[in-house]
């Protein structure tokens, strides 16, 4: 079995660069990807046939069979009953994780119209989440006029200890982040010289 393309890039280019930029000596403490979790919510008023459709689409996108999550307790304000399906999730690890992230960075994000980069918000522990409103940006999905869009959250969990390390890891892997205010100011200052 061959090593995924993005994992090779990580091993050959990203690890040495992270060791240098973060001042790390031990290669075992260099931030790495742990898992990618894809989660899609299902509204309580959605028809029952919608759940298998969402499962089928998420399975097509990830190449792995997702799990249907169910409500733990009833909440009247949300018209939610205990045991009612309220979402679909899948956790990718290993080669499937590396392949999905490569596809997401190299194919999916560049295909978004008027794409100007992803946001810079991390969770404080080096993990990154990106919300997808329309699942038809993935190449595995065929676009039918009558089909409803499926939204999802893609969470990239890293072994980084802080946001700076996590951002540096994803940036070196090719994640197209928008420039922060500090980076824009530095670029403007360099252009004025």
Question: In a few lines, what is going on in this structure?
Answer:
36% of the residues lie in helices and 17% in strands.
List the helices and strands and how they pair.
Blueprint: H1 5-22, E1 33-41, H2 50-62, E2 67-70, E3 85-92, H3 94-108, E4 128-132, E5 152-158, H4 163-173, H5 181-192
Helix pairs in contact: 1-4
Kindly describe this structure.
This protein is α+β, with helices and mostly antiparallel strands. It is built from five helices and five strands; from the N terminus they run H-E-H-E-E-H-E-E-H-H. The chain has helices spanning 5-22, 50-62, 94-108, 163-173, 181-192; strands at 33-41, 67-70, 85-92, 128-132, 152-158. The protein has a five-stranded antiparallel β-sheet. It starts with a helix and ends with a helix. The mean pLDDT is 86.
Keywords:
five-stranded antiparallel β-sheet; alpha+beta; 5 helices; 193 residues
CA radius of gyration is 19 Å
Order of strands, widest sheet: 2-3-1-5-4
Q: Into which percentage range does the β-strand content fall?
A: 15-25%
Described by the principal axes of the CA atoms, the overall outline is globular
Count of helical stretches: 5
Contiguous runs where pLDDT drops below 50 for at least 5 residues:
none
Determine the N-to-C terminus distance: 51 Å
Q: How would you characterize the largest beta sheet?
A: 5 strands, antiparallel
Strand element count: 5
Q: Structural class, please? A: alpha+beta
The helix/strand order is HEHEEHEEHH
Helix content bin? 25-40%
Compute the average pLDDT: 86
């Amino acid at each position: 079995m061959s090593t995924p393309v993005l994992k090779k890039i990580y091993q050959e280019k990203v690890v040495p660069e992270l060791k240098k930029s973060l001042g790390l000596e031990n290669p075992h403490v260099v931030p790495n990807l742990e898992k990618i979790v894809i989660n899609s919510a299902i509204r309580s008023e959605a028809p029952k046939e919608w759940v298998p459709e969402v499962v089928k689409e998420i399975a097509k996108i990830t190449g792995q069979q997702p799990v249907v999550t169910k409500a733990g307790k009833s909440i009247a304000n949300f018209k939610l009953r205990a045991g009612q399906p309220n979402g679909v999730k899948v956790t990718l690890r290993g080669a499937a994780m590396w392949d999905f992230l490569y596809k997401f960075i190299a194919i999916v994000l560049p295909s978004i119209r008027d794409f100007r980069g992803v946001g810079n918000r991390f969770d404080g522990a080096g993990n990154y989440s990106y919300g997808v409103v329309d699942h038809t940006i993935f190449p595995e999905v065929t676009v039918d006029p009558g089909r409803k869009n499926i939204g999802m959250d893609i969470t990239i969990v890293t072994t980084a200890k802080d946001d700076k390390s996590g951002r540096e890891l994803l940036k070196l892997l090719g994640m197209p982040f928008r420039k922060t205010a500090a980076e824009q100011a530095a670029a403007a200052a360099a252009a004025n010289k």
